[in-house]
Amino acid sequence: MSTQTHAATSAPTSTPLCDEHVSVVVVGGGQAGLSMSYCLKQYGIDHVVLEKHTVTHTWREQRWDAFCLVTPNWQCALPDYPYRGDDPHGFMKKDEIIAWLDGFVQHVDAPVREGVAVTRVTRRAQGGFVVQTSAGTLSADQVVVAAGGYHTPIVPRMAERLPSSVVQIQSSEYRNAGALPEGAVLVVGSGQSGAQIAEDLHLAGRKVVLAVGEAPRCARFYRGRDVVDWLADMKYYDMPVEAHPLREGVRDNTNHYVTGRDGGRDIDLRKFASEGMALYGALDDYVDGALRFRPNLRANLDSADETYNRINASIDKFIAQKGIDAPPGEIYRAVWEPQAERSALDLASSGIGSIVWCIGFRPDFSWVDLPIFNGRGYPGHARGVTAQEGLYFLGLPWLHTWGSGRFSGIARDAAFLADRIVELARPDARAA
């Protein structure tokens, strides 16, 4: 049964014998949930944060060893907790990110209950919500879902037909090249994770076969500055979703691939190909012992480069309009071209011993038993505020702006929702 159908048939429950009542339940103990807790504490709103694992679990357990930020450190600005290190234009590595988040955890001192999974959220007949968990049932006046939007790894059904001798993992399980068995590695997907994992394997000397998707790319540095710095000056990161040319459709966009590794640089798949990485189009199927690829490698590489040059052109225009003195710009020119589209690869003779699936995640909000979702399982909302009074979402990509699912925009979104929560909790104060 789909989430949409399941939610639409829900009716207010009879009054349960709840173990406990709190004003606000925050679901998720990552940076979004902790940011929400910080803002609620400023207003003196009693609340609890429920986290099924441990706080900031994803950063500790689902990142590879060489992982680093792709956005500069200065964009790390959680509530009342900006980056204060000595390298604002650098890119924190995994251990540095965890240390910074550990400081934020202490800074917030949130009322967190770890190891508590939320299994169902429903309406109460008399108002508010029933929150069923692995540790009992709570009632709440309001609920903030801050559990992110990347829940279920996407792995195609064709994976079931691949030989058991080929080790298959998802991007969240990848740690380093040495943890994979000998042989070539097929990386499926060229978004942020896929491109960076392919680079990690390539730099480690592994033979990499990369199935290239439709992800765009951007420059790391252009005309003397990080592209992020230019875009910040151009107010791109302040653009609300309703002002974006794609409107809510931007939420479905794949992130541009680039890296902060070794001080930051472009990721150029064409350069990797010239150095021996085998590039194919998008993986389509596995038939009669052969991997089948779509004949779209050239189109996907060209499209990524067009986006790269288009972003740079927008920076050129901004520089010209503002009369800024900056080094000259340039157009990216391909350093490698595929000679032909290769549509098949015999798995047995390829030497591929492992596959890393890097084609994203699906949201799973099936436990939110309320009629707010679209046909793809995403909640309908306006800046995190749903049609169900007292139910909110926080930390989703483009919830409000580009930074909504990142360290740079969560503070603003959390503060906005905290204001809405207070207005509903204290109507007398709102009237005054």
CA-CA gap between termini? 46 Å
Structural domains: how many = 2
The number of strands is 21
The helix count comes to: 11
Q: How many strands, what sense, and barrel or not for the largest sheet?
A: 7 strands, mixed
CATH-derived architecture of the largest domain: 3-Layer(bba) Sandwich
Give the structural class: alpha/beta
What's the name of the CATH homologous superfamily of the largest domain? FAD/NAD(P)-binding domain
Q: Report mean pLDDT, rounded to a whole number.
A: 92
User: Approximately how much beta-strand content do the residues carry?
Assistant: 15-25%
Topology, please?
Elements: H1 3-8, E1 20-27, H2 31-43, E2 47-51, H3 57-61, E3 77-78, E4 81-82, H4 94-108, E5 112-114, E6 118-123, E7 129-133, E8 136-145, E9 152-153, E10 167-170, E11 184-188, H5 192-203, E12 208-211, E13 221-222, E14 225-226, H6 227-233, H7 269-274, E15 278-280, E16 283-287, E17 290-293, H8 297-322, E18 344-346, H9 347-350, E19 352-357, E20 361-362, E21 391-393, H10 410-425, H11 427-431
Parallel strand pairs: 1-2, 1-8, 2-5, 8-21, 10-19, 11-12, 11-19, 12-15
Antiparallel strand pairs: 3-4, 6-7, 7-8, 9-20, 13-14, 16-17, 17-18
